[in-house]
Every structure is written in structure tokens, then in C-alpha cells.
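Human:
Care to share another protein and its fold?

Assistant:
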Amino acid sequence: MRSFYPELKINDEEEINLTVTRLLSKVRTLAAMSYKISRGHKVIYPRSDLTYCANFLNMMFDNPVRPYRIDDTLVNALNVFWILHADHEQNCSTSTVRMVGSGRVNLYAAISAGVAALWGPLHGGANQSVIEMLEKIHKAGASVQDVILRAKDKNDPFRLMGFGHRVYKTYDPRAKIMKKMCDNVLKKLNIHDPLLDIARQLEETALTDAYFVDHHLYPNVDFYSGIVLRAMGIPTNMFTVMFAIGRLPGWIAQWKESRDDPEWRLSRPRQIYVGHEKNHYVPIDQRS
């Protein structure tokens, strides 16, 4: 987009607003287009008569052979997903956007940095990790009790994904909403997902297990959001893309807040040296 549109004038408010509007809209088109191209399908253009979420679903799944039928339940579920995944606090990707943006780079560059930061499994890739974990459990035929025991074993590399949060030390309030939305979507589509059965058993067990309660390891929003996306037909390798679209408005707001600050300065975190105070130089020919 940076190469397609003229230079963004950082002090022109009207141009800033136009750029923000373009970015919010076109990121859906870029995401859907990438999916279509990866499948070897015809690219579907956006329609002016559809809402934000309906437009995205149509661009993702419409095709000349079988036109996509807009389902209000799925449109609502996607809307809820993006709202629940909106930016909050100075998380990894948000801090990255502000840090990179402080160098006075254009908005596209700052947002690209946020996308890159979001890609890791501990941040934007968390819901993908949950689905992959549930698939492994289902494929192995492991019992929920065995999984819980492995999660509590410090010597076992296994990690129970989708539990615990750096901010929420009680049940993630977003998880409650996503769980309800998950039930609605599966019921409407008449889908029985064995992964959801495993997820429910894990949740019920973890909520009553002293270890999980004492360590504040409650299900977070990623625990159910992956199942919702999976039911919609969103491929697992696009989960982080969906997360990025939801985070985009917040990233832009963070960048604009910094830009509007008259004392906006280059971010320069300090660090404390904790190494040796003094080291003796050893000539190269004397080194072992």
C-alpha cells in the first residue's frame, strides 16, 4: 500500500484520516485475496452493499460455481471475534507499533512491525497453538486427566495452550463471550466438533483443579476463538491474520496518539549492565 499510494504527509490531518480509512478497509481485501491466491481461486472483489464482516466472508468463500450465502450468525460471530481481539494495554505488538512509529516512519511501516510481532505463538499465534494442541490430543486418544497431569509436571515439555494470561488473573471475561459464541456457531452450522468436546472437558477439569486455581490458569479467549474460526472455514494458518485485523484499529489509535503528542520523541529504552565490572585483556596468541 505504501508503494501504491502517494507519500503520507504526517502533518496533514485529512490525509492521515484518509490513509487510516483505506488501511482499515483494504486489509480485509488483502487478507482474503492472499487466501484465494493460495488456493488457486479467482480473487473476489469487495461489495459496497455488504457490511465490514459480511464483505470479508464473501471475499473469502464466494466462488463462481457456488455463490456464498451470507449467514447472520457467522457475520455476528466474526464481528464479536474482532471486537474481543481488539488492542488493549501495551502488549508485545502494540509496544512494537509505538516503538517503530517513534522513528517517524510512515503508518504502513509501523503497522507492518506490529504484524511481525504478532506472528509468534506466544502472542498472535496462541489460538492456532490451541487448535494444534487439541488435534494432537484427539489424534493420540489421550484422556483429559493424562493431559492435565502432563501440564502440571515441570519435567514434561508439554504445555497446555489457551490457559492463563499475563493480565487476567481470573477467568478471562472475553473467554465467556467467545465460549457462548462458539456454541451458537456450532449449533447453527449443525457441527459436532470433537475438539470442542476435549476443550470443554479440559476447561471443566482445570477450573476445579487446585493447581490451576492456585496458579490462576483459567481459560483465555484463545481457548475458544480457534474453534469458532475453524467452524467458519478459516484455515489454521490464517488465524494470526484474523487476529491482526482485529488489532489494527487499536494499533492505528496508538500510533496516532503518539503522533498527536507535542512531546513525541524517539523511544529509547535504557538497560542496566549486569556483567563483569572489569575484564583483563588477554592477547590473542595467549588465548586457549
Residues 70 and 195 are 26 Å apart (CA to CA).
